[in-house]
Every structure is written in structure tokens, then in C-alpha cells.
Please model this.
Amino acid sequence: MRPGQPRKLTQKKVQEILMLTTQKIPTEATHWSLRLMAKYSGTTVHQVRQVWQGADLKPHRLQNFKISNDPQFAEKVIDVVGLYMNPPENAMVLSVDEKTQFQALDRTQPQLPLRPGQVERRTHDYKRHGTASLYAAFDILTGQGMGRITQRHRAREFLDFLRQIERTTPAELDLHVILDNSSTHKTAKVCAWQAKHPRITLHFTPTSASWLNAVECWFASLERRALYRGIFTKCPGAARSDPSVY
Model:
């Protein structure tokens, strides 16, 4: 312990550390570290760690957020959540979105397998065998999905996927389709096609709130389980572009 550093923290010193952590920024960094706070507060790294742990402060962590400024935010949330919680009778509720331009990556060397005392390893560099877009419709009631892989992401591909949904779902059921606010979902051709198919109703999430679309959770699971550690020797859509059901 350096001379002048307190052996025991007083409540005043604890409050000083908390105030500096939450209200000030160090001049030589963008956020506090244990050593910087110990320097500024005249305490030890161990003491700063104790204060931060007691207050559940983690200055090294940062999370992003975005606030929707949609003037109809409440109405759209009620509409979408209502479809989830109380779907209409004689109807199918589909959460629809597209995962655009996911990459078919192959590593430059074979992966080194998992062994006792050794984690699985792979090269940091890769070969990219193209990109593709996945359109998916997630059935809220059954958890089943319908998909189509395309090489491009335009209103034309989205409209083709809507036609696929209309063809492959029971004709006696109304379709309620939940979408985000992508410009490809609102073109004149899409609106004209929907007008000719009145059994399909489009429901849009609020702007900057695509997380409200349930298919996003499925995409996140797909990313973790099939894409992040996957090895692809060719683009998924290169061999075929036929629609698939999974």
C-alpha cells in the first residue's frame, strides 16, 4: 500500500468513488479502469473493485439502444403483441423478415478440433464464397417456418416470397403477416398485390423496433447455431434457389 492510501474506506471515500464513476470521465481515457480510479481517488485497485462490485458498476461494459420515435408506437405495439397473445380464429399469424447478405465463409486452413485442455481453433482469415439473403416466415402458433434463399434483396424477391406464402398456406385461413419497416415491404407493387389478396393483412412493427418481430429471435438462434462456426465451401444459394420449408 502506498503512503497516503487509506487502509479502510470511509463512507465519504466510497461516495467519492461512486460520484467519479457515474458523473465524471477521466482526462486520459473514455471510461474508468480500476487503476485509473485508484489513481484519481487515492485508493487501491482492490478497494475500487470492492466499491464497484458492491454497487454493481461495470464501467468497461457498453450496450447500444435505440428509442423509437414512431408517433404510432403504442398502437403498433398493441396490434403486434395482440396477435401474439390472442391470435384471431381461422387465421395464421406469420412473423416475416429477411436476413440479408449472410456470408458463406470457408477458413484458409482446416479447423483444429476440440481436445482435452485445448479449445477448438480456426484461422482468423477466411475465403468468402459469396453472399445470400434468407427470407423466412415464422408461424407463431406452431413454431414452424417457411423460407426462401435469394441472391438479391429487393422488393421483387420479397413479393415472390409473399406469393410463396399465399400458395403454400391453407386457402381457408386468413393470413396476418408481421413485418418491419423495410422499404421493400411497402412498394407500390407490394401494395397492389396485397389489394388483390384480401385474406392477407400486413402488420408493421414501430420504426426502430424490429426486435418486436418474433422471427428475429429465430434468426439470432440460426446465427449462433448454424452460421457463426459454420464452414461453407460455396454460396448457399448457388446450387439451387428453390423455396424450402423447415
